[in-house]
Amino acid sequence: MPKRPFIRLATLLVTVAVLASACGSSNSDSSAAASSDTGLGELLPFSEVQAGDFTFEADVSDPNRGIFHVTTTEPMICTIVWGETEEFGNFNNSLAMNGTGIVQHDVFLPGAEQGKTYFFRVQGSTADGRQFRSPTDTFTIPVSTPPSSDAMGGGDTMAVHGTNLALNATIVEASSEFGPGWEAANAIDGDGTTEWATKGDGDSGFITIDLGSPQSVVGTEFITRRMLDGTAITDTYMITVDDGEPIGPFTAGTPAEPNFNPAEFTGQVIRFDIAASSGGNVGAIEVNVFAPAGS
To answer: What pTM was computed for the model?
Structure first.
């Protein structure tokens, strides 16, 4: 039986409007003030639906982001706004919601630097339309031990390859895109804080890029995205060059361990097919295609 929608579209739009207001306001966090600056009714204390402490940790697979956790007493659509000042500027929620309310909220915070203090506020909505918001507070992502050169794949990879050709490529096709903010183009933007995510493609996920002209290649990397519930992790992938025979499988990597895979060929259009994964909204932080060393 299909899942019943968590809330009607009208309620969802109200929630988005309230959350957007939360991003730009640094006024008092009392319910009266919240009602005044949103015009959408009373905002209740988030503590009324909070089952555990707000916790923050470093992402061991990606030093360029942190992770926020909170558990609620009932299913909610929940978000965290955060930034270097009380004006916030960043807005994140758990992709695991996928249009439904959840109680375990595990949220990636792209760009949250370890050891740096940020302001934050948490806000959410239940199925009956009640709105909740926490007071403004601060968090600091704990500093983790950087990976050793061995963990990074055995030293300086530039000794075995040169330029990442994918940075000047264009997207030809992708199996799907989860939605705005999760476009396929994020996989070739050189930005470790953005991701391409599919709509639950699992092992059927793929992305095809065009290098613009035939290029000499010595190897590739597929830096997998992942969900905190263990889904969306790509284990292995195949590549197909200019509609030839598939090559692989190759082992996917993480930002901490990219797993450069040697593969020498000349080609222009390269398709990355996910061969094995943990299923779900698979995708990539980056797909990299490297020229020979010295180029």
So the answer is: 0.69
